[in-house]
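Q: Can I see a sequence and its folded structure?
A: Here is a first one.
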Amino acid sequence: MVKPIWTPSDDYIKESPLYDYQQFVEYNYRRTFLDYNALYEWSIHNLSSFWKSIFEYFKIDYSGKLEEVLKYDINASDFIDTKWFEGVYLSYSEHIFRNKLNENIALKFADEKNTYAEITWSQLKEKVSKLQQYLKDKGVTKGDRVVGVLNNTADTIAIFLAVNSIGAIWSCCSPDFGDVSITERFEQIKPKLLFIETTYQYNGKKFSKVSTLNHLKEYITSFEAYVEVYSSEWNNILEKYKEKSILFERVAFDHPIWILYSSGTTGKPKAITHSTGGNLLEHYKALVLHQNVISGDNYLWYSTTGWMMWNYALSSLLCGATLCLFNGAIHHNNHHSFWNFVKRSHVDHLGAGASYFSAIHDLSIENYSPRVIGSTGSPLPSVTFKNLQEKFPEVHIISLSGGTDVCSAFLSGCSFLPVYAGKIQCRTLGADIVALDDKNREVYNQVGELIIKQPMPSMPIHFWNDEDNKAYKESYFSNVRPGVWSHGDWISISNKGIEMFGRSDATLNRGGVRIGTAEIYNAVESLSIVQDSLVISIEDKKGVSYMFLFIQFKNEFSINREMEDRIKKVLRNYYSPRHVPDYIFQVAEIPYTLSGKKLEIPIKKIFMGHSSEESISKDIMRNPECLQEYLNIKNQYII
């Protein structure tokens, strides 16, 4: 019998916001819930009542008159025309600042140089006020796009809040994006103003972005002003304006808050446009009810500004938490820079990509224990669940899954439920998720495609410049599965939680049997000698499938016949002979996007004969130089 690695205590349950919310619903909606599953079933079968209860529980401040919580055609082929909370006008940044005491700490910051700063709410307000005045003087108004090429700093937070406070629309890229990559994103949305840092440091090295600024000036004609952050111009802005009360422009519930981008692994990145009200409600729900964030917590999710987790982590400020920002390489100085900041900041909620937690199995962390650890970006292997639980015996490990598409997680944590290694605890409230097989039948305790049957308010309003929502429909709504959102992941739902099996379009086909890539990774990465891995399968002209497994070993280990046999044995023992690859290669690195996703599909395309340029934009890669090694391997093994 499989046992949980963590079980909540009675106190943990009853002191959680989820427990308090359940009491709220039971009293106000005259219901009784025996367990989380009952509460979840109520939320998806009473969608309007559920989202109204979130609106009420979090005491949303608004103007106008609420006409109808939810309006959509249940017989439509998609959710794109869904209307939420019509008649409601609100401000995200107003909720960030409400009920905050000036002397309390809003932000904590550190970087690789061991710079450490604490920013009070009073200091944050002052800077936002000055930036708001500057934006208004430059003619920025509601609906204009303001963009940034910025690091994960307190000033970036202030810039965003100033932009949002006047109803303008935010979009940002991390400085480690390439010039073409940034231009491809911003040129779609015709921004009016740019904030940019022209230098940055990563892993001890300094980089210049002057060429990026020049490139953007040349190719994006809509810009009316540029601000080089930390230049004399920046200092002049902060000196010129005197603090005033921040004026918050309340906008319609579905007014855009920010534009995020698909990773760009295929074609030009899609400009995914999210709503103000949808993200406000969703982030309250996701962070407070499912991640157990409470007022006074210190919250840190390691991210760059180009990953949706930056936007998600920002909303910890809604919950009364102090947001902790680390700018730089998480592994800098043998991980010490990051972990010293985590300890100094007394981080209660610690989040990072699954790949990072898998890479620190052997890292000893003393004199620190968070209350919650969050992981996302890819499935967290069972062995890493166990390793983290051993490091921090009391910690609640919350593996998340969702994405840029919804700017949140719809599979997440639950303070009522135990944690099983390798599984996500629950489907979040209001997220009507099932697994469907090839015949569109809902399946339980077996692998199927992740489907969302009803709309969520944080689903995109549209893709920017997407005529007739063509790309939007192609991305999530197929003729094969009409009327539901097809997310592109393989999952299995059971009474112990949800297990992820990788992207459905990266699925391995072995003699007609589908295998999720996560199964391979769970088995292979259980070996102490393995640092990381990537697997693909391709078919020849006869339809015969071949599996290629790429291994990054730790330290001095290298591939040989004995090592290959050991890897094959563990795959066979963990799962089945079908999980054993046809070819195993040692590589120096596994390719990742800047946001920490393994590049399975582009590597698959390369092995199918596509050029690297056709397969992937190097600008969105963390380590583009490693592609050559895969091209060399591919040239030796042509199927």
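Q: Show me another, different protein.
A: A second, unrelated one:
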Amino acid sequence: MKRFDKSTVRKVLVVTLSNLGDVVLTLPVFQSLKQAMPSAALHVIAGPAAEAIFRGDPRVERLTIYDKKYGWRKKVKLLKSIRAERYDLIVDLRKSLFGFLGGGRFRNPYFFFSRSKKHRALRHWKSLKKILNEPSIPEESFLRTDAAVSAAVKDAVSSSSRRLVVACVGSKSDLKKWPAPSYARLLDRLVAESGCRVFLAGSAEDKKDTQAVLGLMEAEALDLTGLTNFNDLCYLIRSADLLVTNDSAPLHVADSLKVPTLAIFGPTDPVKYGPRFSGSAVARRVLFCAPCERAQCRFHHECMKELDADELYCQAVRVLEGEVRPRGPKILAIRLDRLGDVLLSLPALAALRRRFPEAWISVMVQPSTREVLQGHPLVDEVIVYDYAKNGAHRFPMGYLRFLKGIAKRRFDLAFVLHPSARSHLLPFLAGIPYRAGFKRDASFLLTQTVPDKRREGLRHESEYTADVVLGFGTKPSLGDNPAYPVFRDSEEKITTLLLKEGSDKGRERLFALHAGASCPSKRWPKENFALLGQEILARFPHRLVLIGGAGEEISADFLKTQWGDRVLNLAGKLSLRESAALLKRCEVLVSNDSGPVHLAAAVGTPTLTIFGRNQNGLSRHRWKALGPGHETIQKDVGCVVCLAHRCSIDFECLKAIGVDEVFERVKKMIKE
């Protein structure tokens, strides 16, 4: 190639791409050309969808619209017109015959191959490297910011001082679309909890997707889909405090204008197509198959469906507040046991967050406890490991796919908060370089261990769990119980439920009881619960509420028949979030040693927990509710060794706890 002298260039042709979003990614090329050769005439060949970007732009002297569906005659005619212009420089981003046969004195290199993953905007700009030899990609946008905008859009934007969120829920490919129910929940929370106003925008082809989201939303939103031209869309995005969008053209427009964006990715690769602006964030679920960049999906779009709206809400709030976390360590915490155990791991997660405020923290749990951590401010991602009977990850192929998904996330640290061979094997096989946990059950797979003294029961479970992360964060105190977020929609559902059940405007004083537990050695006799409830109803104005999970309905039905109309039986009818919202409204919870105790403590409700087993490691000293204001009752009946559910003396430790003793403790708590 002849030596390029930009001072001799008088006329430049740029052959750009067809789709709107792809053309926006080529704009750094135009910016570099104008900066290097400001006096050169700039001609552009673009597809019909990209006409709006260049039409009327004074920097572009001539715009030629080219449709790839043109017949050969039109294509040959266009090529002849290109040759007749005698361009000094042709930059063909399509790598087509127009650039190869266009007769320009200089052109960009065609045969440039690279296996490295680079952003598409950078790859397009690299086509100029041998021509202009510029040191870095330009930061300024080539999009016009002075174009005429309709009065209706200006009025809509200026109609309120509340922060503006623009949502573009459509995409040319169905594979790139986040589900409408998830969009609706995210936007509802942004309106209700962050005080934002929401505009939905997009082309006329996106109308169906927009209507699906609007039909599921409870909050009001302004629908501008199909009612704006390209200039209006740019003005709307530039005025937004946050853009929420799939991988589509509005994402690239916002990134070019440096507008904070939450970009939702599934099958496509955010490294290639994601936002480059540091104030934006990417939401994605890394699976074994993602990003596949394929037109068809064999796995029912799991990479999009598994993205949780509450997790994305936390990300959206960080973008709105300008608190997008820089690249920090990627941390995986593993806790594959029950509800109470997961909740008692929150102080350890809080310690990690204090030590690594910029970290990405993922928590691996069973399906039954997924809901309790989704959307929690301490957690960026909840990973579900379903290894139960007939679970998705129990069989070899499912396990290998799950393992590949963990490996692709490239975690830096793994903390196994509950020891098991399964929990230790996963981070080892996934290639996580640093793995910490208890010295028990195949702990040779870990890189650092702490002694497992939990069976001694000398400290609280939350403190034992914190030992695993002690080398990396401040050790939480026994009273350090991070607040559990109660979601607005769950609170509203509980209010509606109470009103339906005849509660006085939802403000009736409530007293919760939970008569179930995971093991018979934890269950105080239901007959005692029945007598306790009768005493409470006779002496206090409260309404009793029965809670419990699936499988605990029988004992709850028995108690309801004993107590009459001032009882609300919700056992097996509430989700974990709804249970949290209900417990927050109760004055006291009386329960066996079980998960709801720790859920109530997390939302600030005083608890009275009935313990049976009095052996080290099983007693109240290790498993009581975390934080102040909680009471426990336990009796020592002289057992040398506790056989738990194999008890040979019919659980005398539980029967020794009298109804009168529990009631006196309840009475004291209500008065306090």
